[in-house]
Amino acid sequence: MATINRPSSIFTRSGAAAILALLLAACASGPESPTASSATPAVGAQPAADSEGAAGLTEEQLAAQRAEEAAERARQAAEAERQRQAELARQQAEAERRAEEERQRLAEQQRLEEERLERERLAALAAEREAKLARIEELETQIAELQQQVAAGDALSGAMREAVLVSEQLLTLLTEEQAKYEEDNLDATGNLVDPPATDAIAELEARRDGLLEQIDGC
After folding, report:
1. Do 157 and 215 meet the contact criterion of CB atoms below 8 Å apart?
2. pTM exceeding the 0.85 threshold for the entire prediction
3. CA–CA separation, 116 vs 122, rounded Å?
């Protein structure tokens, strides 16, 4: 019986050793110590902090970008306004230039028209003076002829004397009329200061012509 119990004791010691080994192995592969466990979150927190820093930097960059874009829009708006004002100024200057050219054109046209009218007026005055001078010369010739006939003792010396008298009056009146057309007897508009004695001249010419017809009829 003693021989049978000895192997059982050996088995018991071997089993205890195996259990002890298993327990030691379990302790070696078990949970980490509190120190190691607390160190692990610290290592994992670093990427989170870096992520937050990166997010903050991105916001600053976006803010800077928005500010730059706003400044660019403001610059473009200011440039557009400057160009608009410059275009308005150019258009206004062009309109003023055209208006000035039109004013000068009209002024030149008016000046030329006034010069033309002045030339026509002066030409008419010159023609009127020439016509009156011709009438005066003609009248002087008639008076001289009548005076010669009177001096010759013509039977119609009475009518001739009257014709000479009327002709002399007409000559005096025509001479006065001719003097009216001098420059110092014209007003600012070129008209005669003293109106022409048209009716008096016509009356004397009618008397003279009647006397001359009477003389020629005899």
Report:
1. no
2. no
3. 10
Q: Which pLDDT value is given to residue 80?
A: 95
Percent of the chain residues topping a pLDDT of 90: 25
- Higher confidence at residue 46 or residue 144? 144
Helix (H, G, I), strand (E, B) or coil at 186: strand
Q: Where are the domains of the chain?
A: 123-217
96, HSE (Cβ side, Cα atoms, 13 Å): 6
User: Could you please report the per-residue DSSP string of 44-93?
Assistant: HHHHHHHHHHHHHHHHHHHHHHHHHHHHHHHHHHHHHHHHHHHHHHHHHH
Q: Give the Cα separation of 167 and 144 in Å (integer).
A: 10
How far is Cα 52 from Cα 31, in angstroms, rounded to an integer? 32
Mean pLDDT of 190-206: 75
Instruction: Establish how many alpha carbons lie within 13 A of residue 213's alpha carbon, considering only the half-sphere containing its beta carbon.
Output: 6
